[in-house]
């Protein structure tokens, strides 16, 4: 079918209208629009007895109560409605203000998961305050905060380790301490803020699954092809979605918040609901 020709003036008008519409979306709509990603992850290192375990993964809040209160309310409501077994929070809770930790924790303290809520440091948290300060505040609300350490859950007789590293960018990640006491027989969920550290993790040992954020999925992506023009240190190789190395798997989330200009395009805030399947 041959399309009718359009005048130069009409073409310019349509391009202008498209640009204005995209800008309105990127600045005023998309940063506030929570999306829920449902994903089944086939994990070679997951025992079949833990098949079906559901993890809610949230990351990169960069919380500012002036702009993010309603979005965060929605995040908590949507997460609890999923009735997850485990909730993993992989860092960058704040952007650059210590005073925003307490109001964010008012939200996060309402999170509910059958086997607990687990959190780690992000680079923005580490640039703003100390790990000890974050750990103290989070653990007062009942959230387990892991810095180069692990905890082992007993789920109906099956062991599952959750190992959280310090942030990588100017932090002090120590994989030996993070994996201390864990044998290869214990399936391990590794929480590491910066995804590119996956290469270091798998060089040391296989992990059932690593969860990361940090990249915000690029924050602005080219629609349809998903190309992210802007990348960040330690988040250049693994920007969004699922990756594998040997028997290990990595999932990188787009995260909830924004850093720099509050803008997102073709890359909305994300609650990732991950259903683990034994492969
Ligand atoms: Fe971030």
Automatic annotation (TrEMBL):
GO MF, one annotated term: metal ion binding
Superkingdom: Bacteria
GO biological processes: lipid A biosynthetic process
Signal peptide from the UniProt entry: none
Calcineurin-like phosphoesterase domain sequence ranges: 53-217
Gene3D superfamilies: 3.60.21.10
Swiss-Prot/TrEMBL keywords: Hydrolase, Metal-binding
TM spans (from-to): none
A GO CC term assigned to this protein in UniProt: membrane
Matching PANTHER family: PHOSPHODIESTERASE YAEI, TRANSMEMBRANE PROTEIN WITH METALLOPHOSPHOESTERASE DOMAIN-RELATED
Protein name: Calcineurin-like phosphoesterase domain-containing protein
Species name: Rubritalea squalenifaciens DSM 18772
């Amino acid at each position: 079918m041959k399309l009718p020709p359009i005048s130069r003036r009409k073409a310019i008008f349509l391009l202008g209208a498209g640009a204005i519409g995209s800008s309105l979306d990127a600045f005023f709509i998309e940063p506030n629009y929570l999306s829920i990603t449902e994903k089944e992850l086939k994990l070679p290192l997951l025992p079949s007895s833990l098949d079906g375990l559901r993890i809610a993964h949230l990351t990169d809040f960069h919380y500012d109560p002036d702009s993010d209160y309603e979005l965060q309310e929605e995040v908590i409501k949507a997460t609890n409605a999923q009735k997850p077994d485990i909730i993993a929070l992989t860092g960058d809770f704040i952007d650059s203000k210590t005073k925003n930790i307490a109001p964010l924790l008012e939200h996060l303290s309402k999170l509910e998961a059958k086997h607990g809520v687990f959190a780690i440091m992000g680079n923005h948290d580490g640039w703003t305050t100390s790990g000890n300060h974050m750990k103290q505040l989070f653990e007062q609300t009942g959230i387990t905060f892991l810095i180069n350490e692990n905890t082992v859950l007993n789920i109906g007789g099956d062991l599952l380790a959750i190992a959280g590293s310090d942030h990588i960018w100017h932090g002090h990640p120590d994989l030996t301490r993070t994996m201390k006491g864990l044998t290869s027989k214990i399936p391990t969920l590794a929480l590491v803020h910066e995804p590119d550290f996956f290469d270091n993790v798998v060089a040391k040992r296989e992990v059932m699954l690593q969860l990361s954020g940090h990249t915000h999925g690029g924050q602005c992506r080219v629609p349809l092809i998903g190309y992210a023009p802007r990348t960040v240190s330690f988040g250049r190789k693994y920007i969004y979605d699922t990756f594998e190395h040997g028997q290990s798997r990595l999932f990188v989330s787009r995260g909830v918040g924004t850093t720099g200009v509050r803008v997102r395009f073709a890359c909305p805030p994300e609650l990732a609901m991950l259903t683990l399947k034994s492969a």
